[in-house]
Predict the 3D structure of the following.
Amino acid sequence: KRSLAFHNLRTGDKLDIVYWADGKYLPEASREIARVMRDGRTDEVHSIDHRLVDLMARLRGTLRSSLPIQVVCGYRSPETNEMLHETTEGVASNSLHMVGEAVDLRVIDRPLRYVRRVAVGLKAGGVGYYPRSNFVHVDVGPVRQWS
């Protein structure tokens, strides 16, 4: 079994769920994960890539945290992404958030720089470090890093 616990800071929704069992991803769990990681500005729901869910679970496990991951931003609708791209530095116009392949997060019982270091060490995709905004971006795109 694989499980994940997280809290969407924008919507206030929390989830602690087994998402994989008996050799397969659980469809109802995938729907719940998508609902909780929805765009908090538009309420739009989009499927979340299973690789990202696995990455979040691996990251939390490697950090040995018993607390839920705090999701700053999960799925982002194209409208929300465009608005943020125009008003916020560092938001990509073709963000992987828009296809359910990226999440901005923090793990409150671990230093942000340590979360970043562990995420980079997993070599599972992109890792962005945003200490002023207090989050780490992880995605399942090409392996790369930035700050």
